[in-house]
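Morning. Coffee machine broken again, so started the prediction first thing and wrote up yesterday's gels while waiting. Chain of 131 residues, entered below exactly as on the submission form.
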Amino acid sequence: ATLLANVSSRLGIPVADTAAVDEIITRIDLSERIETRIDQGASALGVRVVPLEVLEDSRCPSDVQCIQAGTVRIKALLESGLGEAEQAFKLGEPITTEAESVTLIQVLPAPRAGVNIENSNYIFIFEIKKR
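Came back before lunch.
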């Protein structure tokens, strides 16, 4: 009861009936972030993402001034309660299933001019949201 009262107060939704409780539940952000590497994978909210390969890394090096920011595209295995499939993720663009949305939100390290990033050095950060 205390938790419900505190959440209700923070969201500004008075709890008068079950419809108000349902509104509170839908307003709560049901997302998690995972960090993973090539062939390692990580899981959250019943979803597992296993990066398989970098298809493109055209990001602008941090020590260069570029006209375009570039992007990163990777091939990854996406597993959920709905099954598994290989997907091509592009930085910042969500892939949506019936139950969740998975977005590659960050890729590390940042590129530098003249420095090749080995596949083993890439770190991929994904955001998983339940729909």
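The chain has a mean pLDDT of 90. Going to sketch it on the whiteboard this afternoon.
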